[in-house]
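Continuing the batch. This is chain 6 of the set; chains 1 through 5 are on the previous pages. Same settings as before, nothing changed between runs. Recording input and output for traceability.
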Amino acid sequence: MKAEQPTGPSKPPTVSPAIDGILAAFQRHALVGLGDKHSLAQELDFYGALVRDPRFAQEVRNIVVEFGGAAHQDIIDRYVAGDPVPYTELRKVWTDVVGWVPTVQGLGYINFYAQVRAANLTLPPDKRIRVWLGEPEIDWSKIKTREDWQRVAAFRDTHAAQVIMRGILEKHHKALVIYGTGHFGAPMESLEQTQRWTADMNKKLGIETPLQFGVQTLVEQKFPKAFFLVIPYDGFHDPSCAKTFEKNKQSWPVPALVSPVRGSSLETELQMCRYEPLPTGAPPGDLTEAEARQMADKADLHNKGLTADALLYLGPAERLTRTPINPQMYLDQDYRDEVSRHNQILTGQPLGQTAPQNLLVASRPWR
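Output for chain 6:
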């Protein structure tokens, strides 16, 4: 998906309280995709506020998440319904995941399930919110090598797309889809272009796993325009650029949903700053410098929100924080040993001695 270039004077976007804006988007789309900037505390807080709003259960009722493994759908179903679930059983939901290295560690993700449970306790059984776990089933006791893991990881996006299509869209339901920003959209305008481009890049980078094309791209091949995509603003590489962007945003509610991006003055503003610096040094794999820059530019457009339908504004970048780490990571040695084994398989290294600042209950600055 390419960001369209403005052809005339840009009009200001519409700014609304974020929950109102999200719920309004569901009037036009079956799916609202929220790009998760992994462990961004203010975004995780917003998820909780959204599901606690009574209108969410009335109008949406389904949430598909990246931070839970489908092998334990029965566990999360019981937990969010209000049933008693031992913690050592519950934590399998976010431990037995595929794509998180070494596993889901942010406390905000664990608290999110508790927020859904609390909301459901106020609702009759037939009106309760359901959380769909989007990660493919994985039995870590059988994962001994990185190759074992790759055979499962290759189908992360296709599995999530199947969950959405079969569990939500084919039943004419609606869902909030919370996934990492990189899982939405595609670098090209068509699946065919994406297949060719991704195959070439994977070959040059030495990636041998089957291709993935993004959850949104896969779903919209069968259900066109099903998604309304929202990307959160979390600053830019240059702090002074972020301050320039934010200087006339004091009147915006926090959080705010700002739409449209393309064709509005918001697009022009976002184009002025770079999300991350351009890569330096030798390109990875067999990529040329031009190809490495092309990949970086595509990621930059997406991470800034230029391929999205709306921007989620959570406040000035310097006030954003990182959610604290799950205390079980350092209080439960057996659990830590198992997570360390995952890390050994995925990176070749066990978990090191965690730095003291990473164990603080207080949140740390985002950037």
